[in-house]
Amino acid sequence: MSNKALIITDGTDSIKSIARLISDELKGFNVKICDGEKFEGTDILPVDIFFIGCANQSPSSFLYLEEMLSHINFASRKCGVFTVKENTLNYLCSIVKDCEAALASPLLALSKNIETPAFKKWVKSVINI
Known about the structure:
Layout: E1 4-9, H1 13-25, E2 30-35, H2 41-44, E3 49-53, H3 63-69, E4 78-83, H4 89-97, E5 102-103, E6 107-108, H5 116-127
Parallel strand pairs: 1-2, 1-3, 3-4, 4-5, 4-6
């Protein structure tokens, strides 16, 4: 395992904040956080684990990501999705489905003060899928 992780966000403040918290929990990983607008396919190819987060369904910044994930197989990779809105959970899970990455339970962060023990447990669940 190369211990590389990628966190792709929609660029909203709430999602970027959660991405930084995830990065802090990924001890021993080389983590890159990138905005969907700047995401390139080569960003995701060398990683063992990736996270995808957005506030709203189908952000325009995710068009390329959605297209790529529908045509590539990441069966050996682990994935975690996160959002701040319940109606976005199904969208995030659906864009990962075709790439066959091992998907952990999605994280719904309804509060800016994410409960630390539960959050840490979620990050570990993604790592240990």
